[in-house]
Specification:
This protein has about 200 residues and is mainly beta. It has one domain: Jelly Rolls, CATH 2.60.120. The protein has no helices and 17 strands. The protein has an 8-stranded antiparallel beta sheet, with no helix packed on it. The mean pLDDT is about 95.
Length: about 200
């Protein structure tokens, strides 16, 4: 599938699951249009694992790194989302989502999957865009969100074990709808670690 570059992201991105539409805009933002019934989830209650969400992934060149972006989503149906992904393999992965809840509210949602998914809703957001961030070391992963891209709120801190085939990136999904449009702007990547996962920096 098509490989492409994003400003501030080291290396090429490639698609896992082709979107209905996508583009890298002149300002460096990434637009993704997910089609109907696209999802990435392995229900702990049973059923076939879903892995159909279009995902733009790249291989980070460092073991310690931080990725952030502003995420805007055109919400229409329950569980529509723009997400950050971190993927070791088909059964070992995590995602940080800006997602439309069954209560018809945008929310911060995180999912950690070790064969089966552990799904956690965090806080409701009263607007259509938010900043997401993940900070990764060889042992740990931290998820955060921010209203302004400056002060960060802690969402989740976890491990997937030793990561040897890591890919990270951006995705859109529409599990119950016909399509979902997500735009990732102000995309930033830097090597290094956070001083503290919970202090807002």
């Amino acid at each position: 599938m098509t490989a492409f570059s994003l400003p501030n992201i080291p290396g090429e991105c490639h698609w896992k699951n082709q979107p209905l539409g996508w583009n890298v805009e002149p300002d460096g933002s990434l637009f993704i249009l997910a089609g109907e019934h696209t999802d990435w989830f392995s229900d702990p209650g049973g059923g076939t694992p879903q892995d159909s969400a279009p995902s733009a992934l790249f291989v980070p060149p460092e073991e310690n790194f931080i990725v952030s972006a502003k995420v805007a989503v055109n919400f229409g149906s329950t569980f529509d989302a723009g997400t950050f992904q971190i993927r070791e393999n088909e059964e070992l992965w995590g995602k940080l989502c800006f997602e439309y809840s069954p209560q018809r509210l945008p929310m911060i949602v995180s999912v950690v999957t070790r064969v089966k998914s552990d799904d956690c809703n965090s806080v409701a957001i009263e607007k259509q865009e938010i900043y997401l961030r993940m900070a990764v070391t060889p042992q740990t992963i931290a998820f955060h969100y921010s209203n302004d891209g400056a002060y960060w709120h802690f969402v989740r801190y976890f491990t997937l074990g030793r990561l040897e085939h890591l890919q990270v990136g951006f995705s859109a999904q529409s599990p119950m709808g016909s399509q979902c449009r997500a735009v990732f702007s102000e995309i930033q990547y830097r090597s290094g670690v956070l001083k503290d996962t919970r202090n807002g920096e």
